[in-house]
Amino acid sequence: MNTNGKSQDARRLNIDPFSGDTLTHQIYEGLREQIERGEYSQGELLPSRMTLAKRLGVSEFVVRAAMKRLVADKLVSARPGRGHIVETNFMKSAMRALVLDVNIEPWYSFGPSVSLFECGKALRRAGCQVHTLPLGGGGNDTPYLMPLKDELSAHPDLVILRSSASRRHTAMHLVAESGCHFVTVGMESGISRFARHVGHVFYDYSSAVAAFVEECRTAGVRRVTQLDFGRNSYLDASAALHAVGIAVERVSCPNEAPCDLDELVGGAYTAMRRRLSAKPLPDLFLFTDDYLALGAREAMRDCGVTTPHDVRVVSFSNRKSGLMPFDGTAHIEFNPYADGREIARCALEWLRTGTFGTYVSCCAYRPGASFPTPGRLDGLDGRRLL
Q: Is the pLDDT of residue 90 over 50?
């Protein structure tokens, strides 16, 4: 041991017997930092436990405990008869990793913002550095992706891309070209394989939709009008309804262009007024977003239509958004709080093990008073507004 109470190996691994940290932790941290800095190349054999113990002036038991932690973190592997080798598929430890969480949506609202916040909070709690980048959306990809180029210059360890189908491809190319590992989040289950694309979070609403469709089938619903955003809709139950013989009419309020939330509500109001005044009422209206439901409610009130007396309604909503416009209504509920934590859990699993975790769906169907017991559709068939 040298005069200042520290020992060194050939790569300047320092320990301090008077530190508040244990010797095992100091050796673990020192070796981990050397590996992450590249002082030991991938596939290289670490010094033996006996060699390190002699150089550092500690017992071999202490070194062995530190090596076990490195193996648990997937930084090295223990090879019988050879020693400990730096993993060739080395992934940076989740501790101190930089994660860039990017949201690219046609517009920025409650659900994405909560999920982004909860994900960042969970990642920071695990020791990661997190940068969140809400980009919004628009008709032209380029202006909205310029801030992403700036963030990628910091070479984050993992990029989370939450993007609509219309912008995902451009963003994926941009991230892949930067050399950063990334995971995608979205409604589509099939994603093209890009270099360094490590996983995909698929919003699977199938179980919740199936429960809703079964209640429709049991109650004798024959016609449903679905108010949605068109091809960028968060939820589309039309295929599942058609599969059980229920006719579906779709009324869409596209949100392709940049717009604020008041415009979305206004668009839903206009579309719903037009629908209510033109045709017989369906057995049920399905509103596929909180804001669409707000506008639809105003239109129904102005037209004198009530639920469930005149028509039944089911609304897709974000948990705790405060926007559910019908008291006691049945709804398909997405939980953005749990969603953010689930995405963080999957990301941390990849940072620690190199394997992306399995996302657990955060959506459920909640029955309500607006959709009462089966068989109570008396008088709804063919009703028209005067």
A: no
